[in-house]
Amino acid sequence: MNRLIIPSIAVVLFYLEPVFGLFSPLDIGGEYRFLIPRFLIMYLIFISIYYSRNRAMLYALLFGLLYDVFFIDIIGLYSFLYPLMCLIASFIVKYIHQHLIVTTIMSLILIAGLEFVLYYFFSFIGLRDMSLQIFVRERLIPTMIANSIFLVVLGWAFKYVINARMLQRLNQPN
């Protein structure tokens, strides 16, 4: 049962993202602010850092494909970007300390990178007609604030669950 805890949390986060997406856009002072929840990819980054890069990339591929099918109808975008973010995180962590604060900051930087890649991709194919300044003001900054609050609240829980599962896996007899 305990071996299902990590994928179960990923499934719950996958289903929570559209629920939190219902709060967006927010009307603040007559301007709309879009909050894009990226809970699942932050969790997958934590898995790639604290648990297993291969498992994180497998989960990222699976959930990225599900995200492509259910939410954007462009097969391959998230199923490529999610594993790429996990791979980048696992390579970066080889050169820096795996402290929770460092992991949180790195996750937020990768989320910002993901948002920029998505912005440029959708601008390139013509699905989005928004200037970079408007994108940063109305979408990137509110998204980063919302995701940083989520990560500050639950980042320690992610690390605790992943480390507990790692210790359990190491202590199991082969």
Would you tell me the overall average pLDDT?
90
**Shape descriptor:** globular
Q: How many structural domains are formed by the residues? A: 1
Query: Can you identify the CATH class?
Result: Mainly Alpha
Order of helices and strands: HEEHHHHH
For the biggest sheet, the summary is:
2 strands, antiparallel
- Number of alpha- plus pi-helical segments: 6
Taking all Cα atoms into account, the compactness measure Rg is: 17 Å
Tell me the strand order in the biggest sheet. 1-2
| Residues in helix, % | over 70%
Architecture, according to CATH?
Answer: Orthogonal Bundle
What can you see in these coordinates?
Strand 1 (26-28) and strand 2 (31-33) form a beta hairpin. The protein is mainly alpha-helical and 174 residues long. It has helices spanning 5-21, 39-50, 53-72, 77-92, 100-125, 132-171, and strands at residues 26-28, 31-33. The protein has 6 helices and 2 strands. It has a single domain (2-171), classed as Arp2/3 complex 21 kDa subunit ARPC3. It has a two-stranded antiparallel ribbon with strand order 1-2. The radius of gyration is 17 Å and the shape is globular.
Features:
single chain, 174 residues, mainly alpha, Arp2/3 complex 21 kDa subunit ARPC3, two-stranded antiparallel sheet, 6 helices, 2 strands, 3% strand, globular
Question: Care to give the gist of this entry?
Answer:
This protein is mostly helical and 174 residues long.
What is this structure's SSE topology?
Layout: H1 5-21, E1 26-28, E2 31-33, H2 39-50, H3 53-72, H4 77-92, H5 100-125, H6 132-171
Antiparallel strand pairs: 1-2
Helix pairs in contact: 1-2, 2-3, 2-4, 2-5, 2-6, 3-4, 4-5, 5-6
